[in-house]
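The aim of this short unit is practical: by the end, you should be able to scan a pair of folded records and say something sensible about each. We start with the first protein, listed as its amino acid sequence and then its structure tokens.
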Amino acid sequence: MNAEEIKNEESLKAWLSARPEATRQSDAIAIAIRSALRALPLFGSAMNEHWASETDLTALPFLRTRLTTGVAQMFSTPEVNAVSAAATSAARTIFASSVSLSARAAFAAADASNMAAAVSTTDDAVTATEDAAYAAAYSAASDASDAPYLGSSYAAASADANFWLQISSDAQILSRHGNTFTAPLWSTPPPDWFTKADAETRAIWAKDPPGTWDFWIRWWDGVLSGQQLDWELQKAVALIPDEIWTQGPAAVA
């Protein structure tokens, strides 16, 4: 099974099953993390919605899960693994208390983020990847529902195919023993649904006092370009105590 042949859940499972046992788990985690990152702006862009504003919810808990999961991949120490688990637990608690069926794409993105942070089997990784792909397809379909010449089903199919193309690209990097962290998040120009959600997320951040989201903008730009922020800096941020994280983005900044 070649990485180029990955195009859906079944082919991803087949590729992972054929991977060397020594790398199978880390390959699965890498793909899950990258998939969740591509869906992350869908949650960030939803922070203006009433269900988020009513509870003062921000993108911070899910940014934290993504950062700490990456750090845990680079520094697999008991201390780092503990903060990664704590970040995932905190995000799941917030997620569970904020459920709104009207925000399906946002919650699918958040669920993918949480699942990717807690991967323990290759099946977990595939589930996280599927959640992220669903979030992308749902968002693209919703955006296209009012377009006169582009039906929502076509938009969803296109988004799904594009998303799996990126997963295949990640798998090809791993097949060459490369590091997905050093590759741009998208191997092709980002799709419209992603660009829109990314711009909306940044606009939401821009409303807060200067400096509140500066680190996260730099971190996110590094993720997008493959030119990651210094990993020791990311580790230091991951190790910020829980009591500060619970105070919100200004305290973390």
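Turning to the second protein, read its sequence before its tokens, just as you did above.
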Amino acid sequence: NADLVIVAIPSGRIPALGDAVRASLPPGAILVDVGNYYPDRDGHIAELDQGTPESKWVSNQLGRPVVKALNNIMADQLATAARTKESPDRVALPVAADDDRARSVVMALVEELGFDAFDAGSLDASWRQQPGQPAYCSNPTRKELPPLLERADRDKAPVSRDKGLRLMSRLPPDFPSDRLVKIARLSAGLDLWRPANWFAALALAAALISGKSNAR
């Protein structure tokens, strides 16, 4: 009897969820896909490797329309980065869907969580908020987000995505997420003038070097 279900499992396990969703989810219930595809973790999925937007594939697997949202922000940042509407650094999060009603409901939820909800159009455009793109985990403001989505590069993203995951796997588990956000903002061309972001990049390099030395 759920009105809204958030799907937050690895992409490789999505097909196993299809029968349960089709059998038990009531008509009109909204499915929110907050996941991301990482081949190193999920195994290679041919359709996604060929460029099908992740949420289009998820929708096909589950047999229901889905909304793509909350996938381009680190999990703990959902709690720590929330701000009031008046805050100048309030983070904007894209929401993509083919159903206008479902998109509106999820956008309202995003606003309640403490973020600016941005209408990112249909699921066909949701690849712009996937891993490896400038809007991914860079915590942009409402002014910053649209240009980042426009700059998304479909061909280059998989290389950036896989490189980012491999770097993350070499970091200590307690490496602060706020430093990762600063580094993501630098990579997206944001806040190049802020010393704190460059210090975060140095901290990342030091952590990687330390991890490599410990592995030896």
